[in-house]
Specification:
The model has no long low-confidence stretch (mean pLDDT 86). The relative contact order is 0.10. Helix content is 39%, strand content 21%. By secondary structure, the protein is α+β, with helices and mostly antiparallel strands. The chain is globular, with a radius of gyration of 20 Å. It folds into 2 domains: 134 residues; 150 residues, Transferase(Phosphotransferase) domain 1 (Transferase(Phosphotransferase), domain 1), CATH 1.10.510.10. Strands 1, 2, 3, 4, 5, 6, 7 and 8 form an 8-stranded antiparallel β-sheet that branches. Helix 5 packs across helix 7 and helix 6 crosses helix 8.
Amino acid sequence: MFCKKNIPPAYSLIEQGKRAIIVKDDWKDNLLTVGITDPDFFLKQSFPEKENYFGRGALKVVALSVESDERMVIRHFQRGGMIHKLIPDLYFGTSRPLKELWVGYRAKEKGVPTADIIAACHTKVFWKFHQGDLITREIKDGKDLATYLKEIGQPLTREKVLEKRRVIIEVGKLVRSMHEAGIFHGDLNLKNIILQTTDPQNTKGYLIDFDKSFIRSHLRETLRIRNLLRLNRSTEKFKKQGLPITRTDTFRFLLAYFQNSPDFKARFKEFNLQYKRHMLFHRFGEKLSKLFC
């Protein structure tokens, strides 16, 4: 199904009939022990509800062993939008899990903080149609940015305001580092930014879920802005749900992202204009899609 040259360094290929599993060498023995090659491993695992994360579907959390506190997160590839009702998890052509594995590998190689991908599973259904699963190492004590903002609480104390500001600046630098590495994120939103806030004075940020993402030697400005507009749309969505996000927070994020460049005010003004056009187009698309539902 795959040849060795298609697989990132330090990963091995396990083939079983229609299933190809690409496993990180350091984790191979542990994954074999928990039964990753069992035919029903990705389908019949049972997990307590409180141990699940949620994206488009439940992201399952599995302990590697009773003795270890290491855990892994399993994500089954699922489509979004209207097409989800017709073909929720079927893909055609290039292997989605292998493609995301490569983007994640390159991101790590370029120093972009992200979850460690320890396995990718490609299951052939028929012809060039396939399903996919991705297994990542859990980011300990991590929470997505939307959850962090939800839990920060109201009213905001001075300490919480200062903490939120530090986090927003960190996120701005994080997204900038991704773009400087030439990576365009296919779905940049608050749920795909993970924070480790164990130490409020030293918050660490990670970017996850590189499905539909790609890498260029240099990411042009239009693609960078497109990512930022998508992130801002996600911010506005959660803001309507009561998250304590202000216009000043957006300004502070962009200031950190653009590294306080001399022409920042002009770039900020242009960004606002583009966002307004972006939202008009997006709302038109939503209304159009409802006509065909």
